[in-house]
Design brief:
By secondary structure, the protein is mainly alpha-helical. It contains seven helices and two strands; from the N terminus they run ααααββααα. Helices cover 49% and strands 3% of the residues. GO terms for molecular function: metal ion binding.
């Protein structure tokens, strides 16, 4: 298993804990992800869990496993249950023996993209540190990760390149913001194009 597997699990579990605070009335809230409501964000997060779980099991090349559209009704009806089930499933898939050496097909990342399992799990780790914070910021609730999780994800986050391609609608991250002397999570968020002090519009 990757050296960061325990920390990755903690990050995903933290996202589950945060999503547990979501209520149906919150689904229309704006998020730090421009143009996305909380419902959109949760559908994306759930679809990504499902896609990565399928990839870990050798089925990532099937486009349907990555689609968000089939999840819209499920998120609207039961956001917490739908998200939690997908999160636990991807953790189970990633825990399978030898999965870090398997090849993951990730068509959601581009045509014919196939990477080693450990690399794919690193992508997922980065995403769910960011998305866990996205949900917490949307709800106006605290978000904290243990020091070992931040230490493990930092080199993965800082390896995410910056550049003109981040301006594209298909880019998972906006352009990196100027680095400051903020605490570790804030530095990571800035590199991923997020404003650490983002706050929701008062309800």
């Amino acid at each position: 298993m990757p050296t960061f597997s325990a920390q990755h699990r903690t990050a995903v579990q933290t996202s589950i804990d945060v999503v547990n605070g979501v209520r149906t009335a919150d689904l229309g809230l704006a998020t730090p992800c421009a143009g996305w409501t909380l419902a959109d964000l949760l559908a994306h997060m759930t679809a990504q869990h499902r896609g990565f779980a399928a990839a870990a099991r050798g089925h990532g090349a099937e486009p349907d496993v990555w689609r968000t559209a089939p999840l819209v009704a499920a998120i609207a009806a039961d956001p917490v249950g739908t998200y939690t089930a997908a999160a636990h499933d991807v953790l189970a898939a990633f825990a399978a023996p030898g999965v870090d050496h398997a090849l993951f097909a990730l068509p959601d990342f581009g045509p014919d993209v196939t990477v080693a399992g450990e690399t794919a799990m690193g992508f997922h780790f980065v995403d769910y540190v960011a998305h866990g914070w996205d949900v917490a910021a949307t709800l106006g609730t605290p978000f904290a990760l243990p020091a070992d999780v931040l230490a493990a994800v930092t080199p993965l986050v800082m390896a995410v390149p910056d550049g003109d391609f981040r301006d594209a609608d298909t880019s998972p991250f906006a352009r990196a913001l100027p680095a400051t002397d903020d605490e570790p999570l804030a530095r990571l968020l800035r590199h991923l194009g997020r404003t650490p002090d983002w706050a929701p519009v008062p309800r």
